[in-house]
């Protein structure tokens, strides 16, 4: 079929399907009656003349088609009664069973299995018996009538299969749309959780450092003005660092440039741990040691950020709760994973009031965040007392299989 023919056939079929079924079926019944009347309008030599009884029988093979979609089996029964009656009455007998072909197609397309099978067998048997009583019936007429019935039934089955296939595709598309919406909702929830963890870590770390320096400032402001000035500078530096990181996160949310640069600036990773340790040590007076063993390997960007935030939160907990003098940050690289361990020599899992370590923020969100970060990257986290007292956070994070995987 040419493209030009398809260009008008497809819209016409779509409009026909969208039209009122009664109007379409009434027009179809009129068309069938007109087709059946052609043999009366142009009779062959020797044909019986048309009588009003013959016309009524011919109309009986067409009028039931008006209800073929509402009551397909009843409409088929009506056509099945009038068609052989018209053939037996010879006024004149139908050369082509137009009404029968339509009902067989309709039954195959929309009727129940037993209805369409019963009617197909009945029509094949009825056509055979009718042709046996027809005077001068030729063998090709048997084949023509029987093949007409089978063909109409076959086209109806193809229509049924096509509708079922289309319905299956539409159902699959709806399922995929629902799954896509669910995936989007899960992705949004994960991103919100990630942003919440980042903001918690940034603010908790910065506020902890500022609180420590603010508490120390009034003590030394008179006795050691230079140290007090250093404390206030540390407070300002921690605040500026927190604001920069928050702008970075909010810039990603807004997808806007920050200070003339891209909003999607890289998040801090393992390489930034040296600066983090130096900042904590310089701002709080806590002695922080950083040790690394093994050969560094590529990490997925999310794992890079997770490693930094885990150490940041662990040191924040140490500053807020441990009253420690020493914290050790250890990085152990292997072929398959990075093990991060943060150990301090402070109070340990419980403070003097008996509350759980890390719950000073109201619900232990810091330690929960560490576990969630590790799990989100396919790793694990363990927290508890250190081997020599104090508190330890140990996190295992998988390394990327190669550098291309590390780039995400």
Structure description:
- By secondary structure, the chain is of the alpha+beta class.
- Among the domains are: 3-137, no CATH class; 269-408, Heat Shock Protein 90.
- The protein has 12 helices and 5 strands.
- It has helices spanning 3-18, 21-41, 52-60, 72-89, 98-110, 113-132, 139-220, 225-254, 273-284, 301-322, 365-376, 403-406; strands at residues 287-293, 326-333, 337-344, 380-385, 391-398.
- The protein has a 5-stranded mixed β-sheet with strand order 1-2-3-5-4, covered by helices on one side.
- Helix 7 (139-220) runs antiparallel to helix 8 and helix 10 runs antiparallel to helix 11.
- The chain is rod-shaped, with a radius of gyration of 42 Å.
Helices, strands, pairings?
Layout lengths: L2 H16 L2 H21 L10 H9 L11 H18 L8 H13 L2 H20 L6 H82 L4 H30 L18 H12 L2 E7 L7 H22 L3 E8 L3 E8 L20 H12 L3 E6 L5 E8 L4 H4 L2
Parallel strand pairs: 1-2
Antiparallel strand pairs: 2-3, 3-5, 4-5
Catalytic activity: ATP + protein L-histidine = ADP + protein N-phospho-L-histidine
EC number: 2.7.13.3
GO molecular function: ATP binding; phosphorelay sensor kinase activity; protein dimerization activity
């Amino acid at each position: 079929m040419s493209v030009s023919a398809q260009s008008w056939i497809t819209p016409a079929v779509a409009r026909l399907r969208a039209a009122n079924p009664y109007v379409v079926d009434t027009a179809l019944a009129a068309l069938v009656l007109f087709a059946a009347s052609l043999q009366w309008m142009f009779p062959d030599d020797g044909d019986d003349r048309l009588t009003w009884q013959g016309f009524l029988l011919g109309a009986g093979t067409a009028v039931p088609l008006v209800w073929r979609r509402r009551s397909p089996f009843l409409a088929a029964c009506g056509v099945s009664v009038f068609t052989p009656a018209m053939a037996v009455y010879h006024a004149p007998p139908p050369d082509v069973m137009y009404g029968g072909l339509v009902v067989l197609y309709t039954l195959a397309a929309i009727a129940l299995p037993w209805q369409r099978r019963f009617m197909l067998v009945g029509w094949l048997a009825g056509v055979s018996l009718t042709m046996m009583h027809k005077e001068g019936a030729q063998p090709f007429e048997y084949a023509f009538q029987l093949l007409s019935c089978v063909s109409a039934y076959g086209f109806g089955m193809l229509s049924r299969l096509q509708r079922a296939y289309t319905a299956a595709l539409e159902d699959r598309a709806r399922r995929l749309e629902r799954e896509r919406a669910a995936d989007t909702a899960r992705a949004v929830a994960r991103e919100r959780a990630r942003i919440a963890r980042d903001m918690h870590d940034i603010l908790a770390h910065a506020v902890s450092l500022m609180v420590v320096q603010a508490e120390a400032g009034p003590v030394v402001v008179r006795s050691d003005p230079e140290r007090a000035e250093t404390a206030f500078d540390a407070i300002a530096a921690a605040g500026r660092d927190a604001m920069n990181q928050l702008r970075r996160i909010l810039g990603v949310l807004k997808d806007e440039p920050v200070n003339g640069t891209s909003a999607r600036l890289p998040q801090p990773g393992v390489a930034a741990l040296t600066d983090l340790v130096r900042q904590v040590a310089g701002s709080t007076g806590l002695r922080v040691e950083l040790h690394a063993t093994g050969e560094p390997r590529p990490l997925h960007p999310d794992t890079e950020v997770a490693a930094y935030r885990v150490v940041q939160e662990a040191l924040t907990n140490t500053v807020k709760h441990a009253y420690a003098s020493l914290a050790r940050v250890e990085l152990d690289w292997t072929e398959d994973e990075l093990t991060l361990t943060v150990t301090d020599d402070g109070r340990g899992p419980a403070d003097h009031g008996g509350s759980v370590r890390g719950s000073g923020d109201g619900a232990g969100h810091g330690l929960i965040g560490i576990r969630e970060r590790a799990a989100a990257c396919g790793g694990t986290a363990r927290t508890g007392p250190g081997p020599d007292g104090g508190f330890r956070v140990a996190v295992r994070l998988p390394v990327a299989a190669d550098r291309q995987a590390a780039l995400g």
